[in-house]
Amino acid sequence: MRTISPGVLVKKEVAESVKRKLIEANALNSELRPKAVNDYVIFPIKEESVEFAKRMGLKVVYEELEYRHKVKTYKEIVEVPDHLRKYLPTSYDQVGDIVLIKIPNELREYARNIGEAILKTYKSVKSVYWDLGVKGLYRVHKLIHLAGERRTETIHREYGMRFKVDISKVYVSPRLAEEHKKLSEYVSEGDVVFDMFSGYGPFSIFAARKGAFVYATDINPYAIHYLYESARLNKVQDNVLAFVSDCRKISQSLKADHVVMNFPHHSIDFLEHALKTIRDRGIIHMYVIERDNAIKSTSENIIRKISSAGFKARLLEISCGKPYAPYQSYYGLHIEVSRC
Q1: Among 17, 250, 259, 272, which residue has the fewest nearby CB atoms (within 10 Å)?
Q2: Number of structural domains, the chain?
Q3: Which residue among 49, 66, 83 closes a domain?
Q4: Residue where a domain terminates, one of 66, 91, 117
């Protein structure tokens, strides 16, 4: 790990004596390693000791220097007042080489310090954005640039699959990677999948890679654009047909073996349209956000709704359970259905 630091440039033959004077004056920055440059040595000094070094007649330079120990977390180097360190975020999302981080109000004025510290700590990160939450019709991240490159497009990877995304135009959650892959456990070659709220296509691409043919819909045109980009990246473009459309329109004209309903706050409102597309038998993969102590009763309620629509229904699995809010989680309900 490296950083730009002030230092003093001295001849090697006087290096030890200069070092002792810097230590005595508490001016040496011991967190960084000295650097040899031909017949000279650069000793890192503290920012507040620059004027002292100049008064000593030493040449002050600014140089990229290494930390003495490997920095494990950005918290080790971020500059915030000590009384506010308890508010530093303990987690963030990395999408490709871009980090999205939520910052509490207590640290608003230090947001750029946090961004710069993340950029310095993790070599794989090229850009850092403050995530202000999901907003608007397309439910995408509202972002403020904090550090690094000013771009929002990247290549995001999940279990060997590559997804081209723009975090300002499509919603991306790397925390759901395992759930995207889980669909592969249910899908077989030759199956037909209807991805009702496809977004940038993680469920669609995993299913297509398994050999299924996927119909995908989303009202966000950018989502469909990046779905096709990712289909080409993963060489499954012949297995995907995507539409910028309301899924309810498409549901009237196709039949599928699997229906993916990743609209967690409102999936249940589209259940009747999902059932229309199921062949004689199939599986509905419905995602919901629910209180942890209510997910069992919610799944039972959904089974009753499916039964009242003239289908037999059997809950195969409740998956994921990723925390969403206090006492609430994101759940996947995998329900086998068949026409009576």
Answers
A1: 17
A2: 3
A3: 66
A4: 66
| CA angle in degrees (0–180, nearest 5) for 169-175-176 | 80
103-138 burial: b if 16+ Cβ within 10 Å, else e: beeebeebbebbbbbbbbbbeebbbbbbbeeeeeeb
Comparing CA positions, the residue from 195, 210, 142, 209 lying closest to residue 171 is 142
Please answer whether residues 337 and 306 qualify as being in contact, where contact means their C-beta atoms are separated by less than 8 angstroms: yes
At position 76, the amino acid (one-letter code) is E
Q: Are residues 196 and 325 in the same domain?
A: yes
Q: At 93, which CATH number?
A: 3.30.300.110
Does 294 reside within a domain?
yes
Nearest of 35, 33, 23, 120 to residue 68 by alpha carbon: 33
Which range marks the domain in which residue 30 is found? Answer: 2-66
Helix (H, G, I), strand (E, B) or coil at 111: helix
